[in-house]
Fold:
Amino acid sequence: MADIIQLLPDNVANQIAAGEVVQRPASVVKELLENAVDAGATEIKLLIKDAGKTLIQVIDNGIGMSTTDARLSFERHATSKIKKAEDLFNLHTKGFRGEALASIAAVAHVELKTKQAEKELGTHIRIEGSLIQYQGVISTPTGTSIAVKNLFFNIPARRNFLKSNTVENRHIMDEFYRVALVHPTISFMFYNNDSEVINLKESNLRKRIVAILGGKTNEKLVPIEEETDIMKVEGFVTKPEFAKKKRGEQYFFVNNRFIKSSYLHHAIVNAYEGLLAADQHPSYFLYITVPPETIDINIHPTKTEIKFENEQLLYAMLRSTVKHSLGQYNVAPVLDFDRDATMDIPYHYKDKKNIQAPKIQVDPSFNPFETEKSFRQGEKKETSPKWESLYVSVDDDAINIKDIDVEAQLVTKELFDESTTEIVRKTYQVHQKYILSVIKSGVVFINQNLAHQRILYEDLLTKMTLEDTVSQQLLFPIEMIFTNSDILLCKEIQSDLESAGFQFSSISKDTIILSGLPVHVNPSELQYIFEELFETVRRGIPESSFSQLDIIAKSLAKSMAIRNGVKLNSAEQEEILEQLFLCKEPNQSPFGKKTFITLTSEEIQLKFDH
Structure:
């Protein structure tokens, strides 16, 4: 039998490796930015076109590379970060696998320009699908510029799996922020389709966080700082009153490397115990420093998951540190109650013993219901209390109950006769969650939240696509603060939101001001509605305009609908019942859940028969 095992060609092996490292344009951004940081750059520029599908370019002013290094950097397992296996447990840099540039070059057109400070000319290399097309000298500034064009040009299937530009841009922004947050001493610039998105100057940690998330963030931050023999933690958490409905601004950095850890996240949530509602999430920016030999970061291709040697101890210390800071800055309640000085023991009684309690004198003959004139002080009053007279007559013959005439309404059978009753209940609310109504075949239970979602969804979609929406004008404009990425997203979908009934006075760097709202929107829930909307859009918005409107309508309907637990009067219950069955698809909510269930008389009877 012929041999069946064979070595893969280099180009196929590189594409397989690229599948682990380069999952989407944001993966390329991460690798290139980390390389620029490792090169000692103080200024880094990121340029994106078409959400990274057409161009991803990173320009830095780092140390640059020699001609030999520039050529070797595109070979697999070529790295300047480690020389022996032991170095894997003593890492102080970002990249170390030596696969990033090789993997990127396998699935894109790459152009590299680099020069060292002591050299007059630099190196210019062009690669397409792992094959070098050109190598020569070039006049270029000190540092490195890498342009990645036409990502996944030779793997159409992978390119087809990419999401919309909005979603891919969101992932790119996430990676950009993760690198920028951990290196405040480096200035970062981000350009999307030739327009400047964000410009971060060299600063300290707090200013960097505020620059990324907006000016109002400063008042939300509570500083965290603790140092022990096994770890050092610093950074910021947000005050409980600024917690959000969605997880978002939650960052862990270990030895200047962004990581994801549900275990450490639980420690933070535990520190907020009793301060947050069940559906609220705190924001945090925590920078943990541990000895490199106590962690293993070589367990995942993207290096966002690591193993700790003392994970349980780290959990306990992180929890106690955050809890201590919340208490120290009077964010969490502490056992320090306001003292009423009038209740203190006078100083001259402090050392006395056997102090007798003051005597209390009571006038047993005092009757507050008597109409006679009050007695002068010192005048003795008659001491024959007649307490019985306050409640019942002592003389049995004084009042004859039979002689009392009481006006009463004559209760007749007709009072309860259905034929003459003006108001008949059609619906009943059960547990402030379901609306119960009787039908010919039995009863119907309607979920008030899901039913209202369907009603609002169809109404919004009709107005956004076919009709002119009526807005409710605000007497005083409403101002809301959001992060830079939220503001950018809002500008992208502004026209769709306006067609839904929102009127914008202005959209600035970190502020949205509304002058008009759709009729069904409660102004007090606006912040939650927009946070929910932005999160839904980020998760995956299709390219087509109608699908985009559909997702926005679904998200708005979900966040604007009547919540379960809200008490409804009879008119409101009947309104939901009638509006639901006027919908085109009354059986399901916008997200495919049942809006109502029916129980026939036979099904109800079976409950009693068994």
Observations:
- The two ends are 69 Å apart (CA to CA).
- The longest strand covers residues 471-481.
- Residues 165-182 form the longest helix (18 residues).
